[in-house]
Amino acid sequence: MEDEQEIRELLRRYLERAGYSVMTTGSGAAAVRMLSEQAVQLMVLDLGLPDIDGVEVLRAAHATGQVPVVVLTARTAVEDRIRGLQLGADDYVTKPFSPTEVVLRVTAVLHRTLNSTSEPDVASFGDGRLVVDSQRHEVRWDGELLDLTPTEWGVLDALAAVPGRVYSRYELINRLRGYEFAGYERTIDSHVKNLRHKFGDDGSTVIRTVQGAGYRLELTRDR
Q1: pLDDT digit string (tens) for 124-139?
Q2: Domain check: are 111 and 12 in the same one?
Q3: Do residue 106 and residue 166 come from a single domain?
Q4: 107 and 165 assigned to the same domain
Q5: pLDDT, tens digit, for every residue of 82-104?
Q6: Does the pTM of the predicted model rise above 0.85?
Q7: Contact at 8 Å (CB) between 188 and 155?
Q8: In a domain, 223, yes or no
Q9: Is residue 155 classed exposed, middle or buried when 0-12, 13-18 and 19+ CB atoms within 10 A define those classes?
Q10: CATH of the domain at 71
Q11: Are 97 and 106 in contact (CB under 8 A)?
């Protein structure tokens, strides 16, 4: 939650553009109510709220189903950052910040959180045509083991985390290589091209290009 309305709305637009469903409030008390009444998967939290200390909201998020929290604050002192992390924050962004960076950090925290749950290591998609074994870093297509490079594996693993969700080139390169590689997101195109080739004639239908946005895994995850 963010107490400055303009910043709150800016972040909402960026997060919704990235495919997330967003609820906002400038009140810490309202945020605590949301935690108890809504199925919240992650919270972006400003520690400097107008009604109650954001640390109290952080404690509530930690106690309510272990909701991951990205703390957004003007408190730059090392002691404040350490305190927030000790109280259960999963990441910490100080003002001024880039909205794109916040989105990337949210995506990274959700990715870590989803991967740390009790989800099985082996996931199948498209009625078993695609099988992704996260522990072994193995991918099978129509029963055949694909020989993927580490980067190709990383691209497919990212897309398979949320099938149907569009990932921009910028998101993919930063998940694979980190923020310092931000200028090289166009290299994702060549990796996706090579990855599609390994799926044969089905490559362009397995990984769909969304013009002006990025890529998505077109297959539905099997139940």
Answers
A1: 999 999 999 887 888 9
A2: yes
A3: no
A4: no
A5: 666 666 677 888 778 889 889 98
A6: no
A7: yes
A8: no
A9: buried
A10: 3.40.50.2300
A11: no
